[in-house]
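Issue 218. Parser rejects a valid record. Input:
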Amino acid sequence: MSSKVSLVSPRELSALLKQRETKVVDATWFMPNLDPPRSGWTEFKSKRIPGARFFDLDVVATKDDRGLAHMLPTGERFADACSRLGISRDSNVVLYDTHGIFSSPRAAFTFKAFGHPLVSILDGGLPRWIAEKEPLDTNQPAMPNPHAVPDGEAPEYGPIMSVILYDKRPAIESYFIADIEENMPSYEVPELDQSFVRSYEEVVENSAHDLAIDSASVVLDARPAARFDGTAPEPRAGLSSGHIPNSLSLPFSSLLSTPSTTTPPYSTLKSPSELEKVFVDRLGKEEFSKVVKGERNVIATCGSGMSAGIVWLAMQKVGREKPIAVFDESWTGYASRPESKIVKN
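Output the parser choked on:
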C-alpha cells in the first residue's frame, strides 16, 4: 500500500466534497506556550470548512510520563476515533490546519502509519481556503435536519460527531447520540507500520555513527536553527536546547513558501524543485541522491514530533518512494533523559 499523500488546492477540495466518501478533517494544533493560549478544538467549533470533522492530535494519541502529549496512538485508539468521526477505511481523508502547513502533515503521517489508503492535505490550509473565497461554516456544530436527508441515504453528521467525541458533556439529546452511534462506520483495528517510527534506543544507537557509515541514518531536525545550536531556549521550561550527535538542522520553515500577499496570508509546501534545492544545500548532491533512491535511511525529528511531519511530507515530494521514519519522542523525549548526549554548537 502506498504511503504517498496528495496535496490538493481549495478548488480541488471543493470538487471532492461533492463525493460522499470524502471526509475533510481539521487537524489544527497549537504550541502549548502561546500567550494568549489558542485551542484548535475551540476555533474549529466557530470556523471550519463545511462538513469538517476535528482530529485532536493530543487526544487521539498515547501519553507518556515525560510529558509527551501526542505520540502515535494505539491501533485501537486510532480505529475508535475514526469510527466516531464517521471515517471508514474507504474514506478519502483530506486534512487541513489553520496555519497553512504545520500540523496537518503530522495527522497525515498518523493515518499513513496505520495504513489508511487515501489521504490528502489541503495545501495552504484554512487560510488559503478563505483567501480563495471558498465557503465557511461559522455556526456551532448542530444536529442535521433528518427531514432533509434523501430517502435511502444515511444522515451526514459531520461536525457534530466531533462534539460527541471531545466534549465531556455534549449538549445533545441522548436519542440523537443513539442515532449517530447507530450510523457510525466500522473501522477495523489496524497494525502500526513500524518502519514509520524510531525509538529512543534506535536513535541513540544511530547517533554514534556519522554518514561515513552506509548503514547510518541521516537525522534531520526540524526545529529552528537556534534551538538546534543551543543558543535559544526550548519552549518547554527546564528542557535543554541543543541537538542529537551527528544530526543535521533542517528548520521546517525552510520547506515552506514565503507567505502570500492575500488576506489572510498563507504558506504552502515548496515546489519539488525548490524542496530539492533545500535538501541538496543541507545534504550535498551525493547524499541527497542516496536519500531519494532509498539507499540512505532518514529519521525526522523536531520538538515533540509535530513539525517532523513536514520533513516526512517534503521527502515524498522530492521523489523518495520509501517512507522516512519519525523519532516520535523527538527532542522533548530525548533531552528529558539525563543519560542523553546533547551537542551545542
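Fixed in the parser; the record now loads. Strands lie at 6-8, 22-26, 53-54, 92-96, 118-122, 197-198, 218-221, 247-249, 298-301, 325-327.
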